[in-house]
Structures are given as structure tokens and as C-alpha cells.
Amino acid sequence: MATYLREHRHSASKLCVSLFVFLLFVVVPITALSVGEARLVRSNTAAKEEVEDYTKYYNYVEMTRLLKFMALKYPHIANLSSIGQSVQGRELWVMRITKDPNADVPGKPKCKYVGNMHGDETISRQVLVYLVDYLLTRYGEDPRITELVTSTDIYIMPSMNPDGFERSREGDCSGDAGGRSNARGMDLNRSFPDQFDNINVQQEDIPEVTAVIKWILEKRFVLSGNLHGGTVVASYPFDDSASHKMQGYYSRSVDDNLFKHLALTYAKNHPVMRTGEPKCPDTPDETFEDGIVNGAKWYDVPGGMQDYNYLNGNCLEITIELSCCKFPPASELKKEWDYNRESLIAYLEQVHIGVRGYVKDAANGTALPDVRIVVAGINHNLTTAQFGDYYRLLLPGTYNVSAIATGYMSMTVVGVQVVEGKATELNFTLAPLGNEPTVGITVPFTPTITTTTVPTTTSDPDSTTIETSSTTSEMGTSVANESSTPQEAQPPAQPEHQPIQPQDFRHHHYNDMELFLRRYSNGFRSIAHLYSIGKSAEDRELYVMVISDNPTVHEPGEPEFKYIANMHGNEVVGRELLLNLIEYLCRNYGSDPEVTQLVNTTRIHIMPSMNPDGYEIAREGDVRGYTGRNNSNNFDLNRNFPDQFTTITEPRQPETIAVMKWLKNNPFVLSANLHGGSLVVNYPYDDDKQGRTEYSKCPDDKVFKLVARAYSQENALMHKGHPCEDLYPSEFFEDGITNGANWYNVPGGMQDWNYLNTNCFEVTIELGCVKYPKAQHLPLYWDQNRRALLQYIHQVHRGVKGMVIDIKDGTGIPNATITVEEIDHPITTNLDGEYWRLLVPGTYHLTASARGYNSVKIYATVPEEGVELVDFRLTRVRSEPKGQAPKDPRATQDPAEEVFQSFIKDLSLGQGLEQLVQSTATESSFRYRRYKELSEFLRGLTLNFPKITSLHSLGQSVEYRTIWALEISNKPDEPETAEPKIRLVGGIHGNAPVGTELLLEFAAFLCINYGKNPTITRLINETRIVILPSINPDGRELAREKQCTSTVGMTNAHGKDLDTDFFGNASQRVVMAQPETRAVMDLILERGFTLSVALDGGSLLATYPYDKPVQPVENEETLKYLANVYARNHPKMHLGDTGCPSNGQTSSSPPLSPVGNIPDGVLRAAERQSHMGSMKDFSVDFGHCPEITVYTGCCLFPPAEQLATLWAENRKALLSMLVEVHKGVRGVVKDKSGKPIVGAMIVLNGGVRVFTAEGGYFHALLAPGNHNIEAVADGYQQQRQEVVVSSYEAATSIIIEFDMDNRIFGLPREFVVATAAASMTALVVTACIIWCVCAAKSNQQKDGFHRLRQHRDDYEDEIRLTSMGSKKSLLSNEFQDESESDEDTLYANADKL
């Protein structure tokens, strides 16, 4: 405005001034056109150029004049309109800035800024006016701005609360003037419908909110910023939580990472905000990490606008606080504009990230509006706009994206790559369903605000009635509440909705049932998906229909529920009821509120028949018979599950195995098993230790009673408790429920196995006294049970649910344990860190714990209805050398290491490995290869893939066949001691060649995918893989196909079982080692291996050391964990049921554990069959490398046609070993000068030892948790350190620096030196004393000798004369010394003289 004002003030002609004023204030309003509800400003009148004035605030009149002027000056890119009026009649102006602003065109995402929502927070109002001017004046000159305006539909509302602004006062930093609220005293940012709270507002009190809500729903914005004042920070959803804790509660949305990215985009471009230290006078110590904060964590804001945008529009909005002072002096305006200019532009540019595209009708090519765009794993959908266009903001990554529309076949695109920068374009073409049945009704969009709570559910996701008293579950699904009288006139009451009921009641045999399921799966693809969990004994599919709004994937926060029926083939009512339920849910979705809510918030799995074979021989009219009850092998499936009190000796049936696998692979929360023969709900436990008929109470007895009553209360006849008076007149069940064992004892039942082995709570529901009633009675059963079936599904939404999250990076922690005080039944989180814990209403003390993390305890109150959201954020136990202060990991973290950490984490969590398996399918031709063909195959790999393979001979067998070792790595001929090294061994027993063929296929699989699949490429580049496909080639030549138990070929050519020939001590060895053994032992003794996996046959389990009997296992936790990893990634092994009649043993083998009693499919080797001299024992003891043995199947030498199945079962598990070898702890040992120390000993937990290799590197695998490490080297002081190992993270590199050893004889050097010095001093003093004494004596001797020499000539004659006498006497008389002890010596000396 400055230029304009100067021109205006210095105008020479008053006439020009009058003319200008006339044009501006009279002509323009008169010529303004009203289009719809917006007041469009139009004029052909010329106006003088206006430029921004940074020295003053604009009041309403001035701002209006300026905005109108700019719209007139730039009509090709600017359009001013009003979306409504304030309480006092001021217009809510919005400037639309885009190329061709008067028309809606496809391909341009809409974004908006809203300022001055609180009237006394004024910086936002000014900077948005400045932003309008900046965009308009630089369009066509600045390429960046030109591109932004051309490609984006930008809406800017400088003031949402113009009335409040007029009451505010410049310089009022704390808002004492009272301009925060609107003219009716309403806080506009507490007046939007809220997901967690009942917002009681009168529509006439908040016209500004009403106008903005209508605007949001009409425009379908993609991105938004709400500008405030009072501090300097960017806040993101959610703004409140169900608990409404005032501060400190992180209320996470499913797009949390995306919101953090958006907030960071603004904050990092703001010089004050990015510091995280606004230093506001009233809160000088308040800080925000990186300048951003979760809204609810900062403080709870119910009824906020940003959450409404996210939950009810297609729009992601953050709230941006711009200044500490709410209404600072105008002199601050230029500075604030400079601070925020780049942030405002950069934030708008984020509207172009993610994925975007169009959805069209395949029949005629027309655009399809209101199509749901679903991103798998993110439970927040949006819908297409009027041109069929959509814009889904996403962070870089790989996604599965679906387009779902009523009346059309849904379409899913898998593996959509989103990269940084511009959005990925993804278009959909949907085919109409034709004459297939459709669901739902279309309700015209008529947004209103009331205080009533009549939920409107339609097939159109954007046909929404806004209700300020509606409550919403954590994932945003509306749930009706009771409410008061409406505050405005309501439309005439509509007829009560009547759901569509099933019409075709009949008994469905297998083929009929199959067609029924396929029909509804194909007809309702947007909510129904049919799959099979396995086959019956007679190869009939065990079908499951899953019904949900996103049926093919598990959605975060959405519980998994299941119904199973027809477990006893002749109990058929449940089978038909579940088919009725499928029809009911599909046909009423979108039109019936209850059904729509259940389907949108629950993933419902329905298995109509667990025993289709038994059903086929059952007969209609059977009241209490047994024909068809058992499966085709004549086993009762409800006595076939592993039991806590009784050993089930019957072989596990294929139906049982399939269900067990299904339950292990899905995070089911609640279940019901539908039976017949009585009318009661039966809950755990089903048996007890004594096998008596008495109450067997489980820890969750109260929960089971609650959910059991939820069913029985909706079935009037059941609830009476007298079910079958004609058949069982004395039978009575209070409230229609009973404890299982209190009714009768059922060992091996399915409901107890659910409760004890998974997180799932299951009850057994007896649906009627007649097991196989006539078809004409089926409608009555539906009428009696329809409400009960639905009500029971509702029970899955009770208790508490949430996530256990790593506070460092926000990722979910898998296998974390949730315990409830005084209830001895912990549950665990799924792979994404989610949990659901059913509880009766009340207050509980919950604890979340995970290996490597500090536990967190919290109190939670479970409401009478609904579920309480409780998230746990755990901090890691720090890994630091003892006595050292913790370091900031961000200061030292290597970016490459951080990327690799993320790589391993992605493969370890969720569906990472499964997706890898699915994306790397290769053509394979399976057959058994004898030695010659095996050698040719290995040489062929080296010829075809010379850069990543190297073939070596380890030695030869007895019959001179080569023991081959194939290395696969990116540098196979170069030692890379810093990389982990894994050994894969097959064929130790020649009669079990499956392992050999699996390893050959695995080698080919890796080589073929190298350079093509980035994950496989990265694994090979980071790992040294050594494959020994056959270490007993002589025995393999003797073995024969299809011999499942034969021992021919088990031994080598000398008849020696090689797995009993590995001895490290000569004293243990009776004879010389076999040549095959010697070759492998030499390889093992090279050390350097981090992990070894041996493949064998004859059973279906994984074993860990030791094979030796009565041998303590120092590192058992780690060894067992490694075996568990393999078994867990095998589709059958982890179920703990070998399925082998005698676990694959020969008659001469010792007995093994009973069938089915192998928890998780993992066993200590000695418990299977103890023996000395095993390869894995040698590997652990002398190679310092953990080794597990995997038994791939019951048959030692199965037919070749089974190899493809065995490969499919083991491929994921083998890949998991390549991932697992990168975990544990690794590091470098060096001295103070940085010189690496080779051969240093690393002692793990005081027992297991590994040694550093070249470069001082070491790597050791450890079970998840806390571990102590000691480093020892000659001449250096011992070092100790505690490390934390995670089950899903790569080994963190540590550095161990040695000091010179200051200890001598185990004592401190200073003490030894001081002691030595004192000793030496004492010795010197003693020596001096002795010397002095000796010196005194010596002087007398010297004097005598002197006299003797002096007078020698004089008494030479005398001596001669007296020679006959004693010389000794002579000397003693003449020269006697006082020391008699020296007489002889003195005499001898005198004699010499």
C-alpha cells in the first residue's frame, strides 16, 4: 500500500481524489455480482496500483478495500469472494489465487490458509494479506511463484473472526482486551464437531464456523494451515484425546508421520520456530523439539478446526503459532513477514507430494466422483472430487492403493512408488458391476449443524451430516450418543430404516456353499474377500469370508474378529447362520447404520464350515446323533487341539493344523465357535487338571461372562436358561451361560487353545437342541440369533486398545507384553506394535514391557460402553560403557548405518519379509541332483554370476567326491571381516537330501534376483553367504527317492554317521576323523562365522545346541531364539505339531517328545535325540558360532514333486536367517592410538566367547534384551559394556577402546610400584648395614695382611725354623683375627702370600 498511499497523499487534484473515492466505495459495490452464496467482486473500473504497507494493521474496512483492489488489478489470477458473514455482518473474505480463478478445472489440488481465527491474534491476518500481494505481484516474474500459482488452487482467508479483531488492541500481548472470541463470546477453535467430545453450541452463535464447515466440505481441500499467535510452533493433529488429559498425552493420528513432515516443512524454514525455543516472556522455559508439537501433547483442545478438517474433509491441516505476542506493535510486521514468507510458500508446495490421479468409468470414460481412495495400512480414506480427481499426500515409500465405489468393481494397485518431490500419478478405471446386487442409498449433501445425534450413514462417504454432539472412535468412525432436544427445527421424521433380511433359507452342501461365497465375494468386492486357510482331510477348501471396509488388509486400530461354525459336521445351524450373516452384512452395508459401523470399524472373518467332510455325510433331521460329527479321519476336531492339562495323543488333523496356523498369523481379539445340541454360551476353561466336572476358572472369567451374556441376552430363549426341556429336563444354565468344565470336561478344545496360545478370547455357542434341523426351521433360527450375532461382534470394541511405540522413532514395538495387574493373562502386541485387551468396565493398572526397553505403567479406566485408547511410549535401555555418560546418538550416528537400520527394520516388522517373498517369485524346476549334476549346477552358477559367486573345494569324501562350498557376496574373493558371515549346510545325512535341493534353489534364487530386486541385492552386498549343499555325497549316491524312513545312505562310505564325528579334543576321539568331517571342521575352525543353519529331515521342527546329554547351555536364550526365528517364518513349523507318526525316527531311535507338544516348533537337540560329536555342538564350542538344525519334513526322501511345496515353505525362513545374521551386537576393538586389536576375546554374559578378526572386528548374535559384554586382551585393561539388542533392529556398532593394562599380578600398578619401591628401599638399607658390618671386620683382616706382607722377609726364616710346629698356632698367636669362622680362609690367604 505504501506507493499507493504516497500517490494518494501527494495528488495535486482534489477532483481525482473525489473521483477515486466515488469509484472505490460506490461504483464497485453496486457492480459487484453475487454468484451462489459467495459475493464475487467484479469491476472494469481502473484503479491505481496499491503496494503493501508494513507500518500499520489494516482494519476491516481497509483490508476489504485492499483485497478488492488486488482482485481488480489481477483478474486473471485472483478472485475475491465471501463464504459468509460474521455475527456482526462482516464478510468472511477469501482470495482465490490460481490461473483462471473463475472456473473449476481438474488437475489442481486445493489448499488454503486461514488467519485471525482468534481475533486478537493478528500477525496471521497481516502476513496473509502480504502473502496475497506477494503471489500476485510475482506471478509471471518469479518462476517458482508462477509454477505454484499455475498448478495450485490457493485460497487465502486473512480473517475468520473480523468482529474479534475490531475489539482487540495493538500491543496487547496476552489477549486481555477480549478480542479472542467472536461477537457472541464463542471461541471459534472450540466450536467444531469433535471426535471425542460433545460440543454444545447454538448455530446462530457461530456463523463463522458454519460458513467454514460448509466451505471445507464443498471445496474438498487437500492441505491447509490455520495461523494463530501466542508462541512460535507448528502443531499437528490430534488436538485432543478421549481422556482429555490437559497436557502430555500424545494423541496420534494414522497419518502422524505425514503430519510431522508437514509441520517440519513450515518450522525448518522459520528462523525462530526451527530452534524449538520461542523464549516467550510468559513461558521462557517452554521448548518444542524441532519447533513442532502434537496438539494434544501440548494441551488438549476439543472442538478444534484442524481435527475437523482431517476427519471430515479430505484435508490435512496444521495449526501454526507465529509470535509470542498476540497483537504486537505494527513495527514488528515487516520482521514477522520476513520470518514467515519462505515457510508459507514451502508449505503450499507440499500439496504436490504423494500420489494423485483420476478415477473414471470403464464403460463410458466419465469421471467418477465420491470414489473412496484407500491406502493399505493407513486407515484414513479420502474421496474423489467432481472431476474424479484425487490427491493423497504421502511420504516417500511403497504403497498399495485401492479405488472403491458402490456399483463398481474395486481396483487395487500394488507397489505404488512414492518418491520425494512431485506426486506419483496413478489413474483408475473402474468397471460397473452390471446386474450384480448393489448396496446402500444415495443421500444428497445437506450439511447442517444441530445438537441432535442422529447418525447418517450412506454409501456416499461425503454425504455428511455434521453433529456437534457426535462422538468418534479413535479411527474416526461416528457412534451415536444420546442427546437433548434439537435447537433448531428438524426436517419431517423419516420412516424407520428396516434392514434387508436374508430370503433364501436352505441347507447348503459344499458346492452350493462355495458358489454362495464366491457370489458374494465377487458381488461386494469393496467389503468382502474370500480366501482359504487350508484343506480338509478330503481336500475341501476351508473357506473364510472377511468383511470390512478394507477387507484384504489389516488396518491399524481395527480389531480382528472371527466366527467359526460346523466344527462338528452334523451341527449345521451355525453354518447356515453364518451364510445368512454374510448376506445380511453385504446387503445392508451403506444403508443400515449398525451394519455400516461394524463393517467400517471391524475386520470380520467368517468361516461357515471347519469340517466340510463331516457335513457331507451328516443327515437332515438328526437330533442328537454322531454321524458326520468327526472329520473324515474319524477324529473329533474339538478334542484335537493341544491342551494345558492333558496330553493329546491323537494325530493333529489337517483342519486343526490349518486353524492353528490361521490364528497364529492373524491378531484376532474375539471369537465364537458355533455348535449345536443345546442352547447356551460356554466359556473357558473347558477342562481342569483332575478331569472332573467342576468350575474351571480362567484369569479373565469376568470378561468371558460379560461377552457370553452379551450374546445370550439377545436370544430370549437362551437367556431363560432352560434350553432343551424335552431332551434334558434337568439342565439349567443361569442367564444362558456356563463355564465349560462346569458343564462337562472337554480336553483338547479349541476355545481354550485360543485363549492360552493367542491373544484371542473365544466362547462356544450352542445354537439349538437339534443338531441338524429341517430346512423349514432355519428362518426361526435366524430370527432368534440375528441380534445376538451382531451384538457379540460389538463386544470386540470393549476394554483398552492402542499401540506400544518406541519413543525415539515413533515406530511400533512388536511382541511387547501388556499385563493387567491382578489378571494373570498377558497379551502381546502384533508386528506393528498394536494391541487390544478386552476388559470389563473399571480402572486398571496396565504395564507395557518389551525387551530392551524400560517398562511403562499407567492407570486406565474402561468405560461402560466402548474402548479406551491407551498408547504406551517406551524408552530404550541405553547401551553405554560402564562409567561413561550417555552420548547423544544423533551426534554420532552414521547416515549409512541409519539407512541400513531402517532396511533391516522394514524386513523384520510387519509384512516386510512376506512382501519380499511375493516380489521375488522365480521359475523353478525341482528335481533331485546326484553328485555329478550338483557339481555342474554349482559351476554353472559361478559361470553365470562370476561377480558374486566363488566355488571352493573343502576336501574330498571317502570315495573322493568333492565337498563343495559356494560363497555368495558382492566381493566373494576378498575378505570382508566387517560383514557378517552365514553358513548354510545340507546333506549331512545322505538319505535326507531335501536340504541339499533347498540350498541349491536358494543359491539360484539369490543369484537370479541380484541386481533386479533391491532387497536381495542389498542383503548380498552386506552379507557373506557360504553354502555347503552336500557334505555327505557318498551317502547321497546310495539313498533312494520316496524312502521316508530308510537309513540307507545316512552314513558315509565308512558307515559313519557324520553328525557323531565332530570332536574337538583328541582325548574324546577314538579313531581319526572322517575326511568329510575333517573338511568341515577345518572350515568351522577358520572362525569368522556369525551364524550357521543345517538342514536335515525326518521331522518338522528346529533344534538348537546341545546334542550332548546333560550339557548346560550357556547361551540357551540366544540359541533358542534363533531357532524360533526360523520356525516362526515357516508356515507349519511354528505350530509345534510335526504331523509325523513318530517324529520321523527309525525304530532304533530313542523315543521323542509326544506329538504336538513341541512349543513353537523348537526343541533343544538333546531332548529330541542326544548324542556326542554333533556338528552344531562343535560349531558352538570350537567355532564360536551358533548353529541350529532345521528338520524340513517328516519324510527323509520325499517324492520330487513335493520339493516345490517344501521350497515355498522354507524360502521365507531362509531369508529370515539372512536378515537375522545382521542383528545382535557388532563392533571394533582397538587401543587408544586407534590400532585394531586382533584376537581379543569378547565374553558374552560371562560365558560365550567370540574373538576379534582382522581389523579388530567382532559380531555376535544375541537374543533380544540386555546383555553384558567383556573384552579381554593380553597387555590391556579389561573393558565392560552393557548392550541392548532388539528383535527387529540391525546390530548397533560399538567401539571398545583398550587402555594399557595397569595391573600387575592382578593388583593395581600404583600399588605394586609403591610396594616394590618400599621393598627395594628396605633391601638397600639392609645391604648398607651388612656392608658396614662386613667393612669393619674386613679392616682388621686387611691390617693383618698388610703386616704380613710388610715383614715377610723378616720372619721367613722364623717360619722355616718353626715349620715343624703348627703354622696355625704361629699365625694365631701372631696375627689372630677375632672371627674364628674365617680362620681357614685367612690361613689359606697367608699361605699364598
TrEMBL record:
<feature type="domain" description="Peptidase M14">
    <location>
        <begin position="506"/>
        <end position="796"/>
    </location>
</feature>
<dbReference type="InterPro" id="IPR008969">
    <property type="entry name" value="CarboxyPept-like_regulatory"/>
</dbReference>
<keyword id="KW-1133">Transmembrane helix</keyword>
<dbReference type="GO" id="GO:0005615">
    <property type="term" value="C:extracellular space"/>
</dbReference>
<keyword id="KW-0378">Hydrolase</keyword>
<feature type="transmembrane region" description="Helical">
    <location>
        <begin position="1311"/>
        <end position="1336"/>
    </location>
</feature>
<keyword id="KW-0325">Glycoprotein</keyword>
<dbReference type="InterPro" id="IPR057247">
    <property type="entry name" value="CARBOXYPEPT_ZN_2"/>
</dbReference>
<dbReference type="InterPro" id="IPR033848">
    <property type="entry name" value="M14_CPD_III"/>
</dbReference>
<comment type="similarity">
    <text>Belongs to the peptidase M14 family.</text>
</comment>
<keyword id="KW-0812">Transmembrane</keyword>
<dbReference type="GO" id="GO:0006518">
    <property type="term" value="P:peptide metabolic process"/>
</dbReference>
<dbReference type="InterPro" id="IPR050753">
    <property type="entry name" value="Peptidase_M14_domain"/>
</dbReference>
<feature type="active site" description="Proton donor/acceptor">
    <location>
        <position position="321"/>
    </location>
</feature>
<feature type="domain" description="Peptidase M14">
    <location>
        <begin position="56"/>
        <end position="351"/>
    </location>
</feature>
<feature type="active site" description="Proton donor/acceptor">
    <location>
        <position position="766"/>
    </location>
</feature>
<feature type="compositionally biased region" description="Acidic residues">
    <location>
        <begin position="1375"/>
        <end position="1385"/>
    </location>
</feature>
<feature type="region of interest" description="Disordered">
    <location>
        <begin position="1370"/>
        <end position="1393"/>
    </location>
</feature>
<protein>
    <recommendedName>
        <fullName>Peptidase M14 domain-containing protein</fullName>
    </recommendedName>
</protein>
<dbReference type="Pfam" id="PF13620">
    <property type="entry name" value="CarboxypepD_reg"/>
</dbReference>
<feature type="domain" description="Peptidase M14">
    <location>
        <begin position="927"/>
        <end position="1221"/>
    </location>
</feature>
<keyword id="KW-0121">Carboxypeptidase</keyword>
<feature type="compositionally biased region" description="Low complexity">
    <location>
        <begin position="452"/>
        <end position="478"/>
    </location>
</feature>
<dbReference type="GO" id="GO:0016485">
    <property type="term" value="P:protein processing"/>
</dbReference>
<dbReference type="InterPro" id="IPR000834">
    <property type="entry name" value="Peptidase_M14"/>
</dbReference>
<keyword id="KW-0482">Metalloprotease</keyword>
<dbReference type="InterPro" id="IPR057246">
    <property type="entry name" value="CARBOXYPEPT_ZN_1"/>
</dbReference>
<keyword id="KW-0862">Zinc</keyword>
<keyword id="KW-0479">Metal-binding</keyword>
<keyword id="KW-0645">Protease</keyword>
<feature type="compositionally biased region" description="Polar residues">
    <location>
        <begin position="1140"/>
        <end position="1150"/>
    </location>
</feature>
<dbReference type="GO" id="GO:0004181">
    <property type="term" value="F:metallocarboxypeptidase activity"/>
</dbReference>
<feature type="compositionally biased region" description="Low complexity">
    <location>
        <begin position="486"/>
        <end position="503"/>
    </location>
</feature>
<dbReference type="Pfam" id="PF00246">
    <property type="entry name" value="Peptidase_M14"/>
</dbReference>
<feature type="region of interest" description="Disordered">
    <location>
        <begin position="452"/>
        <end position="503"/>
    </location>
</feature>
<keyword id="KW-0472">Membrane</keyword>
<feature type="region of interest" description="Disordered">
    <location>
        <begin position="1134"/>
        <end position="1156"/>
    </location>
</feature>
<dbReference type="GO" id="GO:0008270">
    <property type="term" value="F:zinc ion binding"/>
</dbReference>
